[in-house]
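A.,

Following up on our hallway conversation. Structure tokens first:
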């Protein structure tokens, strides 16, 4: 079971807007069969920003659904970020009339790339975008900035709507990324020119540039403490954490991988977990694990994925200074600040106080001051640095850019973390290598991606609810 299924047991209405990507070969694996009351969006990993087309494995088809029903017409010549934002706003507007609490998951396409090719990156208005970001010299980086700006506007609109509909004061808002940016992508062709600077690695890598995600969580209950948590937090922890926040008993979840971190977010900075398995990929010979401040890494120079282990991205073009006033006065900043003031009963009429608070939190989240060596030595030539011929050990609290291999100095820690990897390896279920099923070709289903292993008698969703 997944989060919406558990939340429904607590009386929540559940809604998904945007990306699904958790299986679609049969309808029992689709969102409305796995806990969501409604879904408007797409089933696969990405679509075009303007026509809902998904290209993969030399096959092309539309991927746009409202529940089970085809909805490609709703997205023709419309910018996907705007479409999904409008849908989310409608759900919020309708939810204010319902007694049940609402769980809304807005899984944007942005800033993921669209289909590979000339329209890999798309913005809402290219002419305006070129003018607004003319100080960025790289055209693809200008496009990325425009995509991200539309995402920022979407977040602001959502928060504004929650406030207008008197729901914000009783909400938990979680904004999170799922992986590092694919700055350059010679394997899949989906580089989006995002930057993981100053971290090492990118999407597809076991290094922190690929797996260290960014997340921000807000609620009135948390607004009394403005801080950056450096605790270890795995994606699986959100299930027990949010279930607990919604009033559930974590024991209802049974034996799961996730750890309930709600207490550490609300009342204490206590470390709730000490260990995270990043991955053990037995096919390409890569593995990594974090134990407290230590991270053990082993790579494979012949895997084809070694490209993703290097430092990529850049600190950005020289442009306008960071304008904290714009952040404070943005839709998201202004509405959240007002609620924070109401909860904390502070006088927030002084804009400088709010700006200082934002600056303080931003500075806590900045790691570049820990990566001075990495910045001054962009292309180290030490073979051991690549972790190809053995294991590397990094202290990621002191060296988040994974520049200094300290395995020789801390051999006991290195051996301990390798032993932990060996324990996990005993539980490993080996990967399968399924071939591409050409029966899934959208040409077989009126040009739409379909649940191709469904019995033919059940393929017509027109009358399904």
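Then the amino acids I'd put at each of the 465 positions:
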């Amino acid at each position: 079971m997944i989060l919406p299924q558990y939340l429904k047991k607590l009386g929540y209405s559940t809604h998904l807007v945007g990306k699904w990507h958790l299986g679609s070969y049969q309808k029992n694996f689709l969102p409305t069969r796995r806990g969501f009351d409604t879904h408007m969006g797409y089933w696969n990993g990405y679509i075009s920003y303007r026509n809902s087309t998904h290209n993969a494995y030399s096959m092309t088809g539309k991927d746009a659904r409202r529940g089970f029903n085809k909805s490609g017409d709703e997205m023709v010549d419309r910018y996907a970020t705007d479409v999904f934002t409008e849908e989310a706003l409608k759900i919020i507007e309708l939810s204010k009339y319902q007694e049940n609490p609402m769980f809304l998951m807005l899984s944007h396409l942005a800033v993921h790339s669209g289909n590979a090719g000339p329209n890999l990156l798309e913005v809402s208005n290219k002419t305006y975008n070129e003018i607004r970001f003319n100080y960025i010299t790289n055209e693809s980086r200008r496009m990325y900035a425009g995509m991200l700006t539309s995402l920022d506007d979407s977040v602001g609109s959502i928060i504004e709507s929650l406030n207008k509909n008197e729901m914000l004061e009783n909400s938990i808002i979680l904004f999170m990324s799922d992986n590092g940016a694919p700055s350059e992508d010679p394997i899949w062709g989906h580089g989006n020119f995002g930057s993981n600077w100053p971290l090492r690695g990118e999407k597809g890598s076991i290094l922190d540039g690929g797996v260290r995600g960014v997340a921000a969580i807000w609620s009135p209950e948390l607004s009394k403490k403005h801080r950056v948590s450096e605790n270890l937090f795995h994606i699986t922890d959100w299930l027990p954490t949010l279930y607990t926040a919604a009033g559930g008993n974590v024991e209802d979840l049974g034996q799961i991988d996730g750890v309930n971190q709600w207490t550490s977010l609300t009342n204490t900075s206590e470390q709730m977990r000490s260990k995270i398995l990043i991955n053990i990929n037995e096919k390409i010979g890569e593995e990594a694990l974090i134990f407290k401040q230590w991270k053990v890494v082993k790579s494979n120079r012949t895997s084809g994925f070694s490209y993703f282990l290097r430092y990529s991205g850049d600190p950005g073009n020289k442009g306008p200074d960071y304008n904290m006033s714009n952040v404070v006065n943005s839709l998201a900043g202004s509405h959240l600040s007002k609620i924070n003031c109401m909860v904390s009963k502070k006088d927030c009429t002084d804009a400088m106080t709010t700006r200082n608070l934002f600056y303080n939190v931003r500075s806590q989240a900045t790691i570049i001051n820990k990566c001075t060596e990495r910045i001054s030595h962009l292309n180290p030539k030490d073979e051991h640095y690549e972790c190809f011929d053995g294991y590397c050990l990094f202290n990621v609290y002191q060296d988040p850019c994974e520049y200094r291999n300290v395995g020789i100095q801390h051999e006991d820690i290195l051996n301990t973390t390798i032993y932990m990897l060996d324990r996990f390896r005993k539980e490993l279920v080996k990967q399968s290598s399924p071939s591409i099923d050409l029966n899934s070709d959208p040409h077989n289903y009126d040009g739409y991606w379909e649940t191709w292993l469904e019995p033919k008698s059940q393929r017509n969703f027109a009358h399904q609810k």
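Residues 3-273 form a domain with the Alkaline Phosphatase, subunit A fold (CATH 3.40.720.10). Curious whether your intuition agrees with the design.

B.
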